[in-house]
């Protein structure tokens, strides 16, 4: 099986997953308490008024018609109109999406850049001070709650030292990167002052997890028969470690990275709350408490699609790292 | 010993221990043997007898918690001897150098051109995520780069750090292995009888059958043009029909390349077919060694006799095969007394076996036939035999079980004794 066919197969599976998500999200409204009419109608609305609202929203049609209508709307990029926020759901969701993606990618970057070298260093210096330091760090990192870490970082670096901003997002990452490209360093640095703390807060758990995974994977690989055989043929230790052992260590690491990034797309609710980060997580919470069904549905679908897309990328990476995946 | 029978390797009193939580395990204890130019030397023993650890110790690949604790590994290499004669006189003797006294980098540089290894399980001994051709090309490339930098053997494995690795991996069109090495890898695959080698070189290990993969492992081992090829149970993981092909291949290559082979196996049939001389290992010690005919036709140590007695003889089939009763001892230092380690399973154990036993010349006819057994010096005297159940101690199995079976069949035992006298 070629790589293209493999990805096509996974892509088709992804389409079915998304369809499933859409269906569940659509039905969610009918199996949870509270109906959209009561949210919009005044408390003392007459039955006639309520019927008129239902007809206006199309809620008096049969369920399958509403479902098909919703599907057709989604295919056209229409997630429905939110009477609560008085705007289209897609406008609200896509206004929040970039902030979430930005934070998720930044946190993942922090994690990858720190954790993989740390894990490798830890494994290749087993039972030495570096290893003890790294394992202690990952234990602490895994067990520190996000909200506490976020608040502490704000207290220390934003309030006490004043290096970073306490909350908010500033400019978009696209503008920050174009500023960097045009040599406008001040703009880029100001962007960094917003994103650094939330990225570290969100990335710490992640870093700790991947450090552990890399360390234990690397130790396994370094003790394996093929690594011994690779040493026996006289290869320099650099190649034994990085060309052979690390590459195979990365296979499970990539899987976990993908899954984690997928959950981050759902929004890091706590971190977003601590830093008042305008992401999808806060939008989801707000639409639940405000009974803004249309926005909630839209957010969940976008999150589902994001998850599927990331898994597709992970599959492609996986196939690149492990040739057995494609040929079986 | 004539000139054509020069030694290439002389292992002396090699001991390797594993420092585990349960205690110290003496995996290899005082093992000595010589390997000559262009011979196949066999090391035979049960699982756990220390034969693989012996091989790993020679190539300095014993992994933690194992450690070579003593011994010398003399390797004939006139160039190295010249290089170190002034600097490390204790590590040089004539044309030989003691690998254990040389710097680690030098030992490492000998992997490939000095020694290379074929491991037991080819499926797990190749990296699953690199093509077979790439892995063989790596082995060629190491030596190619070493030759390109001939200042001294010491510099061979140095000079490839993380920086160069990153450049080679990230810059398109650059790689550790060059075109030449890939071509040579295909030649090597062809040499070990892999059909359509150019195509197979681009395949991954999981696309190979076990036999083909072992051929590829052998090709990889040949890449450095080694003086000594160490084959550690090269056929154990393979089907019987494939085993014969691999053994034939090994022998043909050994003759073509005129290299020495150390063949490690538990299979006496393989030894008989391939080796000129053989060492028998038991519980980390070499208990008998000599030429193939010394050991196979005229075994002195009761363990060797037991091993040979446990293979079926097609010409004079015995009604039942004779197993060696009991199990290999644990090799835990604390449980090994200062005695012959085989005494608890030996049908001829005597009081004199309760002391540490040295290697002795085993028979007057052959000056290289030696055994670690009191029977080389004295005849078996039934009146000095250890009482039944002597080694039973607290656990009640092992040696004791063996004694009982022996006792229930006194005729067979007597006959065996007579045959050996």
Automatic annotation (TrEMBL), chain A:
One GO cellular component term noted in the UniProt record for this chain: plasma membrane
Bilayer topology term: Multi-pass membrane protein
Transmembrane intervals: 12-31, 103-124, 136-159, 188-210, 250-275, 295-321
Claim: Transmembrane is one of the keywords in the record: yes
Keywords assigned by UniProt, alphabetized: Cell membrane, Membrane, Transmembrane, Transmembrane helix, Transport
Top-level taxon: Archaea
Entry keyword annotation includes ATP-binding: no
Principal place of residence: membrane
Cellular localisation: Cell membrane
SUPFAM superfamilies assigned to the protein according to its UniProt record, in alphabetical order: MetI-like (SSF161098)
Protein family: Belongs to the binding-protein-dependent transport system permease family.
UniProt name for this protein: ABC transporter permease
Organism in which the protein naturally occurs: Halobium salinum
Automatic annotation (TrEMBL), chain B:
Gene Ontology terms for molecular function: ABC-type nickel transporter activity; ATP binding
Gly residues bias (residue ranges): 391-402
Domain ABC transporter positions: 9-308
Compositional bias ranges of the Acidic residues kind: 407-421
One GO cellular component term noted in the UniProt record for this chain: plasma membrane
Region (Disordered): 378-421
A Pfam family reported for this protein in Swiss-Prot or TrEMBL: oligo_HPY
Subcellular location: Cell membrane
Membrane topology field: Peripheral membrane protein
Protein name, as recorded: Nickel import system ATP-binding protein NikD
Protein's organism: Halobium salinum
């Amino acid at each position: 099986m070629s790589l293209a066919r493999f990805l096509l197969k996974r892509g088709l599976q992804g389409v079915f997953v998304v369809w499933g998500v859409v269906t569940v999200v659509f039905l969610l409204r009918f199996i949870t308490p509270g109906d959209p009419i009561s949210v919009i109608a005044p408390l003392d609305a007459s039955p006639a008024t309520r019927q008129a609202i239902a007809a206006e929203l199309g809620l008096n049609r049969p369920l399958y018609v509403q479902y098909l209508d919703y599907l057709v709307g989604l295919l056209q990029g229409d997630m429905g109109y939110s009477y609560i926020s008085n705007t289209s759901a897609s406008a609200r969701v896509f206004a929040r999406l970039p902030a979430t993606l930005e934070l998720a990618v930044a946190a993942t970057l922090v994690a990858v850049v720190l954790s993989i070298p740390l894990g490798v260093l830890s494994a290749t210096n087993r039972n030495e001070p570096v290893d003890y330091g790294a394992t202690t760090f990952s234990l602490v990192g895994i067990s520190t709650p996000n909200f506490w870490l976020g608040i502490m970082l704000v207290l220390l670096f934003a309030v006490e030292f004043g290096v970073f901003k306490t909350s908010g997002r500033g400019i978009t990452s696209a503008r920050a990167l174009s500023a960097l490209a045009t040599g406008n360093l001040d703009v880029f640095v100001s962007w960094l002052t917003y994103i650094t703390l939330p990225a570290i807060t969100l990335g710490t758990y992640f870093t700790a997890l991947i450090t552990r995974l890399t360390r234990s994977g690397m130790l396994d690989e370094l003790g394996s028969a093929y690594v011994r055989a690779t040493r026996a043929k006289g290869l320099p230790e650099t190649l034994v470690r990085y060309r052979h052992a690390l590459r195979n260590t990365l296979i499970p690491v990539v899987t976990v990275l993908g899954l984690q990034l997928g959950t981050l797309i759902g929004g890091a609710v706590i971190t977003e709350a601590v830093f008042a980060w305008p992401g999808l997580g806060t939008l989801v919470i707000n639409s639940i408490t405000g009974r803004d069904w249309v926005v909630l549905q839209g957010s969940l679908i976008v999150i589902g699609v994001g998850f599927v897309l990331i898994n597709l990328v992970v599959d492609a990476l996986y196939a690149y790292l492990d040739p057995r995946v494609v040929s079986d | 010993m004539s000139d054509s029978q020069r030694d290439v390797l002389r292992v002396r009193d090699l001991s390797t221990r594993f420092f585990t939580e349960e205690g110290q395990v003496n995996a290899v204890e005082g093992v000595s043997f010589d390997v000559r130019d262009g011979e196949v030397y066999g090391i035979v023993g049960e699982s756990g007898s220390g034969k693989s650890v012996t091989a790993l110790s020679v190539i300095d690949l014993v992994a933690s918690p194992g450690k070579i604790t003593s011994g010398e590994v003399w390797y004939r290499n006139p160039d190295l001897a010249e290089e170190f004669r002034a600097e490390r006189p204790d590590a040089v003797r004539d044309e030989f150098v003691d690998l254990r006294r040389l710097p680690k980098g030098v030992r490492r540089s000998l992997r490939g051109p000095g020694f290379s290894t074929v491991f037991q399980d080819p499926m797990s001994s190749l990296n699953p995520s690199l093509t077979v051709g790439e892995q063989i090309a790596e082995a060629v490339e190491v030596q190619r780069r070493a030759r390109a930098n001939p200042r001294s053997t010491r510099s061979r494995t140095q000079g490839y750090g993380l920086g160069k690795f990153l450049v080679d991996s990230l810059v398109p069109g650059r790689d550790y292995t060059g075109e030449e090495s890939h071509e040579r890898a295909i030649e090597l695959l062809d040499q070990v009888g892999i059909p359509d080698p150019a195509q197979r070189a681009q395949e991954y290990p999981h696309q190979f059958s076990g036999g083909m993969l072992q051929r590829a492992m052998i090709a990889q081992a040949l890449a450095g043009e080694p003086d000594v090829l160490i084959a550690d149970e090269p056929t154990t993981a393979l089907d019987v029909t494939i085993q014969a092909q691999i053994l034939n291949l090994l022998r043909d290559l050994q003759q073509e390349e005129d290299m020495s082979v150390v063949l490690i196996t538990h299979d006496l049939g393989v030894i008989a077919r391939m080796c000129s001389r053989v060492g028998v290992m038991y519980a980390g010690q070499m208990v008998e060694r000599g030429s193939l005919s010394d050991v196979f036709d005229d075994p002195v140590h009761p363990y060797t006799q037991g091993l040979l007695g446990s293979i079926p003889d097609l010409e004079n089939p015995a009604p039942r095969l004779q197993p060696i009763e009991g199990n290999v001892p644990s090799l835990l230092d604390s449980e090994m007394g200062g005695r012959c380690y085989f005494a608890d399973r030996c049908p001829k154990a005597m009081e004199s076996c309760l002391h540490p036993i040295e290697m002795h010349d085993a028979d007057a006819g052959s000056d290289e036939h030696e055994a670690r057994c009191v029977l080389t010096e004295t005849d078996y005297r039934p009146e000095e035999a250890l009482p039944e159940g002597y080694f039973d101690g607290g656990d009640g199995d092992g040696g004791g079980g063996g004694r009982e079976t022996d006792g229930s069949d006194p005729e067979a035992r007597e006959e065996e004794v007579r045959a050996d006298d």
